[in-house]
């Protein structure tokens, strides 16, 4: 490996955008000031130190960065076409190892998902980039330049075939404490279809609690149409746990075997299934705090406890709220 290739390999291992920004500001020198420590990760400083040891000039460093960016641009153009044969030929002709173009500021898989390329191209990238897992995130230009994972981007656009592919290859829908669901709602990207998909694909019931609290708290600042979505989302969550596969199979079994089913027995089945999700007291307290009467009605509807006990608790929460308001 010659010196030039060595420099390119060193640069490819980091966030090229931040490295270029650092060089524009500081040159090939190490500046340990507080601002640089805050703006640039340790890896950038390490790369700069390595470039210093190789006696690399600013001009040479920028030339190497441009080579990487130009090859990346060409790769992206081919990927957008969805042509695996052209991509394969380009890689062979230029001695390119695809995974080496994934850096701290860029990921080929995320780029491909953002650009809605065919599933075959997604599979090609997965095969050639040899990802250890898909539970990672980088900054995405698609959504406010925020850090997003491949699974998030697939579910954002309701591209469930790609989401299935990622999940089948080890992506975790509960990655980072289930942040996926909260972020979809926060950025107004949650809809009926992707919520149902998430619930049906192993989202932990234990993580639902925080999401429900987020939905309730959002009522303080969201517009009326989004508030209606909140009610719909909560309804979907309750129905998911109430009318799950066990419930459906049970009803089908009764129907198939032509067993008589009284309203009392049906009510028992529904009551048993409603135990799959518990309406937590903190949900009631939060709904009372934000004066969400519609949400309170929904909770009461799906809470299998005695209604007089529930209503008494709600009344107590309202009294406590009045006391706090009076004292403040």
Automatic annotation (TrEMBL):
| Spans of repeat ANK | 146-178
Q: Which SUPFAM superfamilies match?
A: Ankyrin repeat
Which lineage? Eukaryota, Fungi, Fungi incertae sedis, Chytridiomycota, Chytridiomycota incertae sedis
Domain of life of the organism encoding this protein: Eukaryota
What protein name is recorded for this chain? Uncharacterized protein
- Which keywords has UniProt assigned to this entry? ANK repeat
Cross-referenced Pfam families: Ank_2
């Amino acid at each position: 490996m010659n010196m030039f290739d060595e420099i390119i390999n060193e640069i490819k291992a980091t966030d090229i955008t931040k490295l270029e920004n650092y060089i524009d500001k500081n040159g090939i020198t190490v500046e340990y000031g507080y601002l640089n420590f805050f703006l640039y990760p340790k890896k950038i400083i390490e790369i700069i130190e390595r470039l210093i040891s190789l006696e690399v000039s600013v001009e040479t460093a920028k030339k190497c960065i441009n080579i990487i960016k130009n090859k990346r641009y060409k790769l992206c153009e081919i990927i957008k076409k969805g042509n695996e044969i052209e991509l394969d030929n380009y890689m062979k002709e230029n001695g390119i190892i695809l995974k080496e173009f994934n850096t701290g500021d860029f990921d080929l898989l995320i780029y491909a998902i953002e650009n809605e390329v065919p599933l075959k191209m997604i599979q090609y990238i997965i095969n050639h980039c040899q990802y250890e897992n898909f539970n990672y995130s980088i900054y995405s230009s698609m959504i406010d330049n925020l850090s997003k994972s491949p699974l998030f981007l697939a579910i954002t656009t309701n591209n469930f075939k790609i989401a299935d592919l990622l999940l089948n290859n080890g992506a975790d829908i509960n990655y980072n404490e289930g942040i996926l669901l909260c972020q979809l709602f926060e950025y107004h990207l949650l809809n009926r279809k992707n919520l149902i998909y998430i619930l049906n694909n192993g989202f932990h019931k234990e993580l639902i609690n925080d999401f429900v609290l987020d939905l309730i708290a959002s009522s303080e600042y969201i517009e009326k149409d989004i508030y209606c979505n909140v009610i719909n989302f909560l309804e979907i969550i309750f129905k998911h746990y109430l009318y799950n596969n066990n419930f459906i199979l049970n009803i089908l079994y009764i129907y198939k075997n032509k067993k008589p089913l009284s309203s009392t027995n049906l009510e028992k089945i529904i009551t048993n299934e409603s135990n799959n999700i518990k309406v937590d007291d903190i949900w009631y307290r939060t709904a009372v705090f934000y004066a969400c009467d519609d949400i309170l009605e929904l909770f009461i509807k799906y809470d299998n406890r005695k209604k007089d006990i529930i209503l008494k608790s709600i009344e107590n929460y309202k009294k406590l709220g009045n006391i706090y308001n009076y004292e403040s």
